[in-house]
Amino acid sequence: MIGWTNLWIDGRAVVSPELNRRRALIVLEKIDEILAWEQTKEHERDERFVELGRYLCEVRAGQYWRLENLKSFDEFLEKRFPESRRKAYYLLAIHEHLTRVPKQQLREVGWTKARELVKVARRDGIEFDCAPWVHKAKELPKEEFRREVDRYLTGKETEAWEIIYFKLYKSQLSVVERALEIAALMLGSDKSRGYSLEMICADFLAGAALETENSIQGPECSASIRRSAATCGPSDPAQKAR
User: Fold this and answer.
1) Residue 13: CB partners within 8 Å, gap ≥ 6?
2) Is the pTM of this model over 0.85?
C-alpha cells in the first residue's frame, strides 16, 4: 500500500530513500533469524518481539524490501508473515507508541500486554503515564489486564470472554449457520452470534431437562396418564359418537 511505503507532500510522493544495501542485508537477516527462532522456541516470542518491532520499523523507513525486488512493505510482510500480518503491525505500533517504556520492561510484560498498552498510549497521547500501566501489566493476568484497559477506554465494565474453536464438516456448516440466523431473527440482529449460540444451547438444555424429568417420573406416571385418559374418554364429540 502506498500509504505505508511512501511519504506524500502536496499529493506527490517523495523520492524513495537511497537504499543502504549493507544495512538492509543485516536487518533482513536479523528478522529471518528471529522468525526462525520463534518456530523452534515458543518462549522466545515474548523475549525478542521488541527487537523484531524495531527492525520492522527500519525496513519500512529504509524501504529495505527493495533489496528483494518486492513492490511494497505490505508485500514484504506477506512474505515474512504468511499466516497473518496482524502481529507485525502490532509490533510496529509497540515500537512507535511505547517509546517511554524501557525495553527491558516491555520484554517482561510480553507483546500481548504491550499491544494493550498501545491502546492507552494512543488515547492519552503526550499525557500517557506509562509507569502505573506497566506496573498493572506486570501484576495482572492477560485477560484481567485487557479488561482493565477496556474499562479505562470505554468507562464500562466488561465481562470475561474466551474464543472457542470448533471443527465442522461442510455438511454441518449450513445447519449451524441457519440455526444462528434464525436465532438472530428471534433475538434481534443487534445480538452477537455468541449470544445466539448461548440461547440455542439454553433452549436445548431446557428441553433435555424436561425430558429427563419425565423419565424420572417413570412408567407409573405414564400409566396414570393413560388411566386418566381412559376415564375421561375422548374429548372429541365425533369420537364419542363412535
Assistant:
1) 2, 6, 7
2) no
Q: Rounded to whole angstroms, how far apart are CA atoms 180 and 201?
A: 11
Q: Which residues contact 76 (CB under 8 A, 6 or more apart)?
A: 59, 64, 65, 68, 70
Which of 83, 86, 84, 65 shows the shortest CA–CA distance to 75? 65
Under DSSP, is residue 69 helix (H, G, I), strand (E, B) or coil? coil
Lowest mean pLDDT: which of 43-57, 95-109, 190-204, 221-235? 221-235
What distances in angstroms separate CA 219 from CA 53, 215, 216, 225, one per listed residue? 70, 8, 9, 10
| Alpha carbon distances (Å) from 99 to 54, 149, 165, 240 | 11, 19, 36, 89
At 167, which helix (H) or strand (E)? none
Distance CA 156, CA 197 (A): 24
- Number of residues that this document lists for the chain: 242
Write the pLDDT tens digit of every residue in 55-95. 999 999 999 999 999 999 999 999 988 877 888 999 999 99
Q: Is 9 helix (H, G, I), strand (E, B) or coil?
A: strand
Using CB atoms within 10 A of its CB, is residue 218 exposed (0-12), middle (13-18) or buried (19+)?
exposed
Question: How far apart (Å, rounded) are the C-alpha atoms in residues 240 and 64?
Answer: 93
Q: Are 136 and 145 in contact (CB under 8 A)?
A: yes
What residue type is 33 in one-letter code?
E
Between CA 70 and CA 67 the distance in angstroms is: 8
> Residue 226: which H helix or E strand, with range?
helix 193-232
Query: DSSP state, 8?
Result: E
